[in-house]
Amino acid sequence: MTADEVGKNSFAKKEEQVLKFWKDNQIFEKSLQNRQGKTLYSFYDGPPFATGLPHYGHLLASTIKDVVGRYATMDGYYVPRRFGWDCHGVPVEYEVEKSLSLTAPGAIEDFGIASFNEECRKIVFRYVHEWEYYINRIGRWVDFSSTWKTMDASFMESVWWVFQSLYNQGLVYEGTKVVPFSTALGTPLSNFEASQNYKEVDDPSLVVRMPLQNDSASLLVWTTTPWTLPSNMAIAVGETLVYVRIQDKKSGEQWILSQGCVSRWFSNPEEFVILESFSGKDLVGRTYEPPFTFFQSKREEGAFRVIAASFVEESEGTGVVHMAPAFGEGDFLVCKENHVPLVCPVDAHGSFTEEIPQYQGQYIKHADKEIIKFLKKEGRIFYHGTVKHRYPFCWRTDTPLIYKAVNSWFVAVEKIKDKMLRANSSIHWVPEHIQEGRFGKWLEGARDWAISRNRYWGTPIPIWKSADGEILVVGSIRELEELTGTQITDIHRHFIDDLNIVKDGKPFHRIPYVFDCWFDSGAMPYAQNHYPFENQKETEEAFPADFIAEGLDQTRGWFYTLTVISAILFDRPAFRNAIVNGIILAEDGNKMSKRLNNYPSPKYVLDTYGADALRLYLLHSVVVKAEDLRFSDKGIEGVLKQILLPLTNVLSFFNTYAELYGFDPKSQDIEPAYTEIDQWILSNLYSVVGKVRESMSQYHLNFAVEPFVTFIDDLTNWYIRRCRRRFWEAEDTPDRRAAFSTLYEVLTVFCKVIAPFVPFLAEDIYQKLKLEKEPESVHLCDFPQVEMDKILPDLEKHMHDIREIVGLGHSLRKEHKLKVRQPLANFYVVGSKDRLSLLKTFEGLIAEELNVKNVIFYEEAPSFIYTTVKPNFRMLGKKVGSKMKEVQKALSELPNNAIDKLIQEETWVLTIDDREIALDGDDVVICRHTDPGYIARSSALFSVILDCQLREPLIVEGIARELVNKINTMRRNQQLHVSDRIALRIKTTEAVHRAFLDYENYICEETLIIAYDFTQDSDFQGENWDINGHATQIEITVSSIDS
């Protein structure tokens, strides 16, 4: 069966059955009930919008959250997992605007704010059923029955309380600042929103002449935003920079720019002459002619002067900076300090206003070409080209942002920066570098947060203002009812915009803004429970959250807003532990795109491979370490074939023989006789339990997955293969009982270990093994404890060595095309005395595994093998430099015993010209060479040599083993039961016939043959096989003869 067939016919269908079992038996609900009264484990879930469909990023975050929640529950904690929905803001409004074609300026007001908001309310849960389907299908357990919603009046009221608390601490103010602005949405954005969608773009690169008054020279000013030139109010220079006056030898024209930028714009020194040099300070205060005359009246107010700015550099441009204070944060601050007037002739939709009649009504970016054309005509353009640079785009509309001076309401984040940094210092981040890196640096550079939005569908900012500027901030619905004398059931804009407050005879009107929707989600820890109006105890006990998890982009989003608000309100972090995941890209490394169809749909993957395979693929990748993952369904198929399917085969193997022989784990009539390999797999099992527990305590999900993935390989490719015959014993011996008991314990414990990670397969294994009085589901069990008395570190080390030696032997066979079924005479192992002395007791195991007659151990290489050592030039060059030739010669002359010491002790000291050079294993390349008939391979600890000389007895035995393999292949293909006896008819060569007779008992026992017939009948039509070069036809039938 192919992996694709396995996925479609087995895993995905079994998962559907498990989902039904969970639902029918309310397993999630019972898992919560079982832990009620236990220690609370608090978890905050970042709310998604249900106006869009879930994608792989959501499934990844859901997987991480589910793993941690399931593990904590099994570890004895009470873990409520209440789901929430983000309902407000641009994502919802934008969908309604598109559907109703409300794209023109003023269209929403014409349509009516009340009607618009109610349309938003209608579509908030457009895809809620799809969300619930995918979250359930991925195996995530959450409570959808009591979801919180940011549009609920109770949630919004708590947001009001949060805001009033911030205001009462003096951390809210109104002001004009230059902020990121979306002209598509007509509203300002926060700095962290602006940081989410940068793109590489080509923009105009202009150097404009700005003639100095009372001077023959022009200042050369560089800009990439021609549309801001009509708003030019000043020119900035670096006060300490050196500037030069340059004259063109041919035209006599004079220009001024910084000395460090001359070569950027004047490449041929034969064409110009530097007339003088001076400091930027000498330019400050000079006046000039602006490129446009729309605001000539502003000269009297201080416009069109050269001012000093500390941010002027020579790394790009001309060292002379055009200043449009309404469209640059640095421009705004410096111009304000220098009393330069502010003009902002651009409206909320990015069009020029009547103040710029020449371009009135034109979108600013479209006007660039007309502006450049005009300036060329006026002789103002010194240079015109293009520049490629990173530019911010609106995260929702994917249109270019501008920076624009707007009146807004701000949270004074810069005042509480120390509190935020202190809160961050106590958070455990995974990966760790987020703390001091991406998140820490963002906090260090945090700006005051523009929280007001000129929008409609959101939590209204509860500020009422009088004509003389007095402010009332309302913190609850009851307070507003008392101030207005009106009963209030909803506090969206269309319910309260017209509610006026009269205080001391003075009327107050609400300001027309709503909150940034990130303010809603940042208030979630309190607002989800209607705190402080209700549920005070529950909210405070759950704060800070023990755990949250989201994508890397949320370091400048939800993680940030949570931290801002919690630091202000409580001087604490909002969460103790955070896992940050990376971004899932298409397999080609590009962003996943429906238009490009460059990724498989989540439904296809879940239907084909199942949720467990997808979960494990994601958890076992770099994406859980905040790195990007190139998504590949072949990778998911690999997880299915290499991890999940082998584990399922182990379960099938156990159940088949346990049923055949009636194994009862409760029976104690025969005392098991545990062997070293039983003790090894149990030791390995409980070591894995310890490693998973340790990794989960640190929230390192990828490290938690790694040991159990390795364990599955140990179980399937070593324990089961080495012990298969023990399960086949017809008599219920102590040895067979030990094998069954060991494997039963492994499976029953291991299914609990993997339950948080691959919950469906874990449930399937558990249900097939659980005893009558055990919990109903694996997810109602406790997570296994480490049983220290069963952990045998030395045995694990020895078995690891054996597997390494055997692995080297197998790789030699594979490389030289020597099938394992072909016996060989001798296998030699070279290693240290200490390691070999402990391995000699496993000589028979190694011999059987590699199908060799003899295993011989050497502490030094035997005579038929010799070793050479060559420099690893890449590593050794750093140590020895010019002495490389001498080192190379010295290495070539090393005797074998010195090389063996280098291998065993991993260090060696060479003396070159009285200088000692310490070498380690990474500094050299060790090569083994053998006499004809031998092949060799080495690792860091061992060298192995295989005697591959075939003699007649070995050839005959190889034929016998090949026959067994082919007959058993036919049994599997015909789907015979493991106990079915068969009759054999065979047509073959004399060599195969003789090998069969020589090994008759062995062949018949291995294949359950009870009758056979060799034929040379020309009409015989058996299945064709190649038995080590001998053409053979075989036919098997189930025999009715009683064995």
From TrEMBL:
HAMAP family: Ile_tRNA_synth_type2 (MF_02003). Pfam families: Anticodon_1 (PF08264), DUF5915 (PF19302), tRNA-synt_1 (PF00133). It comes from Chlamydia pneumoniae (Chlamydophila pneumoniae). Its EC number is 6.1.1.5. GO terms for biological process: isoleucyl-tRNA aminoacylation. Catalyzes the attachment of isoleucine to tRNA(Ile). As IleRS can inadvertently accommodate and process structurally similar amino acids such as valine, to avoid such errors it has two additional distinct tRNA(Ile)-dependent editing activities. One activity is designated as 'pretransfer' editing and involves the hydrolysis of activated Val-AMP. The other activity is designated 'posttransfer' editing and involves deacylation of mischarged Val-tRNA(Ile). The keyword Transmembrane helix does not apply. Monomer. This is Isoleucine--tRNA ligase. InterPro entries: aa-tRNA-synth_I_CS, aa-tRNA-synth_Ia, Anticodon_Ile_ABEc, Ile-tRNA-ligase, Ile-tRNA-ligase_type2, M/V/L/I-tRNA-synth_anticd-bd, Rossmann-like_a/b/a_fold, tRNAsynth_Ia_anticodon-bd. Belongs to the class-I aminoacyl-tRNA synthetase family. IleS type 2 subfamily. Keywords: Aminoacyl-tRNA synthetase, ATP-binding, Cytoplasm, Ligase, Metal-binding, Nucleotide-binding, Protein biosynthesis, Zinc. NCBIfam families: ileS. Its main location: cytoplasm. Residues 17-629 form the Aminoacyl-tRNA synthetase class Ia domain. It catalyses: tRNA(Ile) + L-isoleucine + ATP = L-isoleucyl-tRNA(Ile) + AMP + diphosphate. Its cofactor is Zn(2+). It comes from the Bacteria. A motif ('HIGH' region) lies at residues 48-58. Residues 678-824 form the Methionyl/Valyl/Leucyl/Isoleucyl-tRNA synthetase anticodon-binding domain.
